[in-house]
Write a structure and sequence with these properties.
The protein is mostly beta strands. The chain has one domain (8-137). Helices cover 0% and strands 41% of the residues. Strands 1, 2, 3, 4, 5, 6, 7, 8, 9 and 10 form a ten-stranded antiparallel beta sheet that branches. The protein starts with 11 loop residues before the first strand and ends with a strand. 40% of the residues are buried.
Length: 139
């Protein structure tokens, strides 16, 4: 399986079983797109996660809107996000080794990839954001 193909126009939070999403707003440190996995750089700016780059390898959440550099971006740090993508129920979703905020199923990681868990799929398009920045490199 490859990186998830996100339909950015369809990215939105959902309330499931009364659980409201936990949202935060940050300043974009680069151009960002809805559906990207977001990290914060050393200056506290939102960047697309890159598990191969020190300082932006830990997932903070999923971008809910597009943002140009220096513009505000809202992210979901915990809760449910409709990705507008087709996934597989039960897949563990991680930051992809391709960088740029891409996400993929954990089964796509290869040895030497850092394991930064974004969450898991509860339906074919609904991601439960449940972050775990493990600091572990897949063996």
């Amino acid at each position: 399986m490859a990186d998830y193909t996100i339909v950015k126009a369809n990215v939105k939070t959902s309330i499931v079983d009364g659980k409201k999403p936990v949202l935060a707003r940050y300043e974009a440190g680069e151009a960002l797109t809805a559906g990207m996995a977001i990290a914060l750089n050393d200056a506290g700016l939102a960047m697309g996660v890159n598990i191969g780059t020190v300082g932006i390898e830990d997932v903070k959440g999923i971008a809910l809107n597009d943002a140009a550099t220096s513009q505000p971006v809202d992210i979901c740090e915990d809760g449910y996000v409709d990705l507008g993508a087709v996934g597989t129920i039960g897949d563990i979703i991680v930051a992809s080794a391709t960088g740029s905020g891409a996400i993929t199923a954990s089964s796509d990681l290869v040895p030497t990839n850092r394991v930064s868990i974004v969450g898991y799929m509860t339906s074919n398009d609904l991601l439960r954001v449940d972050l775990a920045n493990t600091g572990v490199t897949k063996g």
